[in-house]
């Protein structure tokens, strides 16, 4: 059984996820430790009305670089509204082309 770590983005970044420093802190203090332990991740965007592309890029680009594009198989982007989902897809597409 795989352990799962849930990260509630609204609790950490608010309804408008824009602060790259907060994204970096989430990545360093929550995402990387969970991945190093072999956990699956749920990035829960419930209540986040919008996010900037730079926030999402800071959040997930380095884990993709470090672990490879297949790390996305261990990440679930939960409760994204259409705006946030579109931004996540843009960043993932960009990272797939960069790989």
Core attributes:
55% helix, single chain, two-stranded parallel ribbon, 99 residues, 5 strands
Would you write up a description of this structure?
The protein is of the alpha/beta class. The protein has one domain (4-98). It has helices at 9-13, 20-36, 53-67, 82-98, and strands at residues 4-8, 16-17, 40-44, 50-51, 75-78. The strands form two sheets. It has a three-stranded parallel beta sheet with strand order 1-3-5. Helix 2 (20-36) packs parallel to helix 3.
Could you give a short description of this structure?
With 99 residues, the protein is α/β, with parallel strands linked by helices. The chain is built from four helices and five strands; from the N terminus they run βαβαββαβα.
Which band does the percent of strand residues land in?
15-25%
- Secondary-structure element series: EHEHEEHEH
Number of strands: 5
| Number of separate helices | 4
Task: Specify the overall morphology.
Answer: globular
Structural class: alpha/beta
Major beta sheet summary: 3 strands, parallel
Helix content: 40-55%
Strand order of the largest sheet: 1-3-5
- Could you tell me how far the N terminus lies from the C terminus, measured between alpha carbons in angstroms? 30 Å
Number of domains: 1
Low-confidence stretches: none
What's the alpha carbon Rg, rounded to whole Å?
Answer: 12 Å
- Residue-averaged pLDDT: 96
């Amino acid at each position: 059984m795989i352990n799962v770590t849930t990260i509630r983005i609204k609790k950490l970044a608010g309804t408008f996820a824009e602060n790259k420093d907060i994204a970096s802190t989430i990545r360093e203090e929550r995402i990387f430790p969970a991945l190093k332990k072999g956990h699956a991740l749920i990035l829960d965007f419930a209540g986040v009305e919008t996010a900037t592309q730079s926030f999402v890029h800071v959040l997930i680009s380095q884990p993709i670089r470090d672990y490879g594009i297949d790390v996305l198989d261990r990440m679930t982007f939960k409760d994204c509204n259409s705006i946030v989902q579109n931004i996540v897809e843009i960043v993932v597409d960009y990272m797939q082309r960069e790989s």
